[in-house]
Specification:
The protein is α+β, with helices and mostly antiparallel strands. The chain has one domain: 3-Layer(aba) Sandwich (Endonuclease, Chain A). The chain contains 6 helices and 6 strands, in the order ααβββαββαβαα.
Length: about 180
């Protein structure tokens, strides 16, 4: 049973933002300090990624652990009900559990589909989880994102190696210039 009235619950749920969240602001500031420039909530791409770095052909999704079911095993069907286990950072509410399990399952499926579409279009996808941005892990996570972006950039712009067939010694000798009559 919910401890809040329907009006209070509605007010609480309406206050949850999808843009400019605290985890998103942490990643944005960290990348900006490291010299990366990006676009926000790019609507031309599937899934409207939180950050798009066009130079790197990379999309960054900053996911809340609860809303996207971080470290939660795939839900299992048991007697017509969805069963899902909690993880360290994602606790499924005990009230209206079936609703939340179905919602999180749909979110996870949608995330996979959007990233598949982006990959088909030639975009790289990075997912950053809310729990990876806790103060103890924050700098490591941001450094890891920067390393990954630099690796992608170098990999995409690497010189193409052309292998030449080996030549015989006879073919390698330079032809001698013919002596001309003077």
């Amino acid at each position: 049973m919910d401890k809040l009235s329907p009006q209070q619950r509605s007010k609480n749920m309406a206050a949850i933002r999808s843009k400019d969240t605290k985890p998103e602001m942490i990643v944005r500031k960290g990348l900006w300090k490291r010299g990366f420039r990006y676009r926000l909530n790019y609507k031309r791409l599937p899934g409207h990624p939180d950050l798009v770095l066009r130079k790197y052909r990379t999309c960054i999704f900053i996911n809340g652990c609860f809303w996207h079911g971080h470290n939660v095993a795939e839900p299992q069907m048991d007697n017509g009900k969805w069963i899902i286990d909690n993880s360290e950072c994602c606790k499924i509410p005990r009230t209206n559990r079936e609703f939340w399990v179905a919602k999180i399952r749909r979110n996870k499926e949608r995330d996979k589909e959007e990233q598949r579409k982006l990959a088909e279009m030639g975009w790289h996808c990075i997912t950053v989880w809310e729990c990876e941005l806790k103060p103890s892990k924050r700098e490591t996570t941001l450094d890891s994102i920067a390393f990954t972006l630099n690796h992608i950039w170098l990999q995409d712009r690497a010189a193409k190696v052309v292998s030449y067939q080996s030549l015989d010694e006879n073919e390698m000798q330079m032809p001698m210039a013919a002596d001309s009559d003077r």
